[in-house]
């Protein structure tokens, strides 16, 4: 197959590598433009850009596709069979969607129509879903609303984080797109309705201790590694990496004992892995050995 690949983050790299290894002709790779990153704010290529360069594939990084006549003409000239899209980050207008002979296939990290949108992995953990998966869908002009070819499921374990699900689902997506391109599949329209997973921001990281402990723990798992979950201790930011639910009660946000147990709106959380701004990740017990946190201290 002659393909264009559109994707940007690390989640998309296994699919790109799988298509290349399978012998598909990748006529172009589209991804987000290099951006400043790190303390030095050096211009950095996204993960797909780096992988495409390693594979010797041509890369294009337009700022937008909507109304972009130059890119539409270029894509038309490639005489494409399919486009494959994985977390690209730009909207594809109908003028672009219509160019490949058989349209565009999207690798989406949820069991559509549940969790359309930008953050489906995090949303599934936040909601307490017991399973998620990958859906291969034919793209249309809507937001993850196109007909589905097929889906595969994977359980969400009690210790799964967005990081562990991300890695598992990205490998699944690479395997599944090869299957999708290997034969003809019926396109099944999605049911009406659906749920949406909005884009996350750094503001989502702040813990509200008035919420139940179970909900806060899901938030910690969902927001690992980004945007993280944090609270304030003595005016300084404290990032919570992992915590256990404890069946005790108290005023929300207050330290209840010398094991770093924090009262929530319902039950409590014992902080087992934490990190101060600029510091290393450590066990909660190790943190307490080096920092005085008296019982009754209030976080938030």
Written account of the structure:
With 300 residues, the chain is an alpha/beta fold. It has two domains: 2-197, Formyl transferase, N-terminal domain (Rossmann fold, 3-Layer(aba) Sandwich); 202-290, Formyl transferase, C-terminal domain (Methionyl-tRNA Fmet Formyltransferase, Chain A, domain 2), CATH 3.10.25. It has helices at 13-21, 47-55, 69-77, 94-97, 120-126, 162-181, 213-222, 284-290, and strands at 2-7, 25-30, 35-37, 42-44, 59-60, 82-86, 104-108, 116-117, 131-138, 148-155, 196-197, 230-233, 236-246, 261-263, 268-276, 282-283. Strand 1 (2-7), helix 1 and strand 2 form a beta-alpha-beta unit. Helix 1 runs parallel beside helix 6. It is elongated and about 70 Å long. The termini are far apart.
What order do the helices and strands come in, and which of them pair?
Layout: E1 2-7, H1 13-21, E2 25-30, E3 35-37, E4 42-44, H2 47-55, E5 59-60, H3 69-77, E6 82-86, H4 94-97, E7 104-108, E8 116-117, H5 120-126, E9 131-138, E10 148-155, H6 162-181, E11 196-197, H7 213-222, E12 230-233, E13 236-246, E14 261-263, E15 268-276, E16 282-283, H8 284-290
Parallel strand pairs: 1-2, 1-6, 2-5, 6-7, 8-11
Antiparallel strand pairs: 3-4, 7-9, 9-10, 12-13, 13-15, 14-15, 15-16
- Which shape, going by the Cα principal axes? elongated
Strand order, main sheet: write it out: 5-2-1-6-7-9-10
The CATH topology of the largest domain turns out to be Rossmann fold
CATH architecture of the largest domain: 3-Layer(aba) Sandwich
Number of strands: 16
Number of helices: 8
**H/E series, N to C?**
EHEEEHEHEHEEHEEHEHEEEEEH
CATH superfamily of the largest domain: Formyl transferase, N-terminal domain
Number of domains: 2
Q: What radius of gyration results from the CA coordinates?
A: 22 Å
**What is the name of the CATH class of the largest domain?**
Alpha Beta
Unreliable runs? none
Mean pLDDT: 96
Structural class assignment: alpha/beta
**Head-to-tail CA distance between termini:** 55 Å
The biggest sheet amounts to: 7 strands, mixed
Q: What level of helicity do the residues show? A: 25-40%
């Amino acid at each position: 197959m002659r393909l264009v690949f559109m994707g940007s983050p690390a989640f998309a790299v296994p699919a790109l590598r799988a298509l290349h290894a399978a012998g598909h002709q990748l006529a172009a790779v589209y991804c987000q433009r290099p951006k400043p990153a790190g303390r030095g704010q050096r211009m950095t290529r996204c993960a797909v850009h780096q992988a495409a360069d390693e594979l010797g594939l041509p890369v294009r990084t337009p700022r937008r596709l909507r109304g972009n006549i130059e890119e539409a003409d270029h894509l038309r000239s490639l005489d494409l069979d399919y486009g494959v899209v994985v977390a690209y980050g730009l909207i594809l207008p109908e003028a672009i969607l219509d160019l490949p002979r058989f349209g565009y296939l999207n690798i989406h990290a949820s069991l559509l129509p549940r969790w359309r949108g930008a953050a489906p992995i995090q949303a599934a953990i936040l909601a307490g879903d017991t399973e998620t998966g990958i859906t291969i869908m034919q793209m249309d002009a809507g937001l993850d609303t196109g007909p589905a070819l097929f889906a595969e499921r994977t359980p969400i374990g009690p210790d799964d984080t967005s990081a562990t699900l991300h890695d598992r689902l990205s490998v699944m997506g690479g395997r599944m797109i090869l299957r999708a391109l290997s034969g003809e599949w019926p396109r099944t329209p999605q049911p009406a309705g659906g749920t949406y997973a909005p884009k996350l921001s750094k503001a989502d990281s702040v813990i509200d201790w008035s919420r139940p402990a179970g909900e806060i723990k899901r938030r910690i798992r969902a927001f690992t590694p980004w945007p993280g979950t944090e609270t304030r201790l003595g005016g300084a930011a404290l990032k919570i990496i992992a915590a256990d639910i404890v069946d005790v009660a108290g005023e929300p946000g207050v330290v209840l004992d010398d094991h770093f147990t924090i009262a929530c709106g319902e039950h409590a959380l014992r902080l087992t892995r934490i990190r101060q701004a600029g510091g290393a990740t450590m066990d909660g017990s190790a943190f307490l050995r080096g920092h005085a946190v008296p019982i009754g201290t209030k976080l938030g």
